[in-house]
Amino acid sequence: MKILVTGATGHLGSLVVEALLQTVSAGDLAVSVRNPEKAEALRAQGVDVRQGDFDQPETLEKAFAGVDRLLLISTDGDNETRIRQHQAAVHAAKKAGVGFIAYTSVVNAEKNTLSLAEVHRATEQAIRESGIAYSFLRNNWYLENEAGSVQAATQGAPWVHATNASQVGWATRSDYAHAAAAVLTGEGHENSVYELSGKLRTQAELAAIVGEVLGQDINVQNVDDAAYADIMKGAGLPDFVVSMLVDMQSAIREGALAVESDTLETLLGRPAQPLSEGVKAILGK
Q: Is the distance from CB of 153 to CB of 282 less than 8 angstroms?
């Protein structure tokens, strides 16, 4: 059985490959990357490194040839670009005869009010319409998304957010990667939809965990959208990024990520990694 991971040199993809190599021989694993030279370390381990560019669909069909199970990791970019790239990948997978697609989506994709959820709804629909067996890995928020706030806290900065007491199911990127690896190597996951979340917590509760790791009290500031935007602009972020972040805070405040589920731990076959350990990893401890 040949398993292929897209975006294998990225943050999530590299962790998935690392997890797969714990149970799968390198000869049964392939990766699709835009720049193969960045994956030379994997090639040296015996992994089949293939060139695949989401903006050049013809390369994807070649990259997916002979693949039984594909992990399609969502790309970066604006919504229109990502939808186009994902649909090209699904079409290429269909033409290449791929038998199973696992796709990294977002929790509660059908109704999620995050702007990025549009990408995941469109991609899930494309996969369903392809007729290829699938598993939608609907990931909640990566703890690593809060790395900027964690690093700022080490300098005594306040923990600023605009989400009130809304909850988020943070988990480490490593746990999401291991869950994906479990689906790719396991049986009985055809046409499944998995809501993957850690324990629900508020921003204040996460800040308290960070404070425990740092051994200091963190000043948590819950502000409105306008104040949040001003603070982000003051940090030097460009306007389009600030607008995106404000939209995210608003959706999270409305409960977009308050999806409770124990499916992540079920797939892992163990408890989720403590967030304190994830914070230490962010800090390089």
A: no
Q: Which two tokens mark 174?
A: 């490593």
Rounded to whole angstroms, the Cα distance separating 199 from 11 reads 22
Handedness of CA 177, 182, 185, 189 (dihedral sign): negative
What is the structure's pLDDT at 285? 83
Q: What is the 3-state secondary structure (H, E, C) of the chain?
A: CCEEEECCCCHHHHHHHHHHCCCCCHHHEEEEECCHHHHHHHHHCCCEEEECECCEHHHHHHHCCCCCEEEECCCCCCHHHHHHHHHHHHHHHHHHCCCEEEEEEECCCCCCCCCCHHHHHHHHHHHHHHCCEEEEEEECCEHHHHHHHHHHHHCCCCEEECCCCCCECCECHHHHHHHHHHHHHCCCCCCEEEEECCCCECHHHHHHHHHHHHCCCCCEEECCHHHHHHHHHHCCCCHHHHHHHHHHHHHHHCCCCCCCCCHHHHHHCCCCCCHHHHHHHHCCC
Percent of the chain predicted with pLDDT > 90:
98
Q: Given the structure tokens 């670009």, which residue do they identify?
A: 81
Q: Alpha-carbon distance 128 to 122, whole Å?
A: 10
Share of the chain above pLDDT 70, in %: 100
> For the residues 252-278, what does the mean pLDDT come to?
97
Residues 6 or more apart in contact with residue 107 via CB below 8 angstroms: 138, 139, 140, 169, 195, 196, 197, 257, 259, 261
User: Alpha-carbon torsion 262, 127, 6, 116, what sign?
Assistant: negative
Give pTM, 2 decimals.
Answer: 0.96
The sheet with strand 29-33 has its strands ordered as 48-51, 29-33, 3-6, 69-72, 100-106, 133-139, 192-196
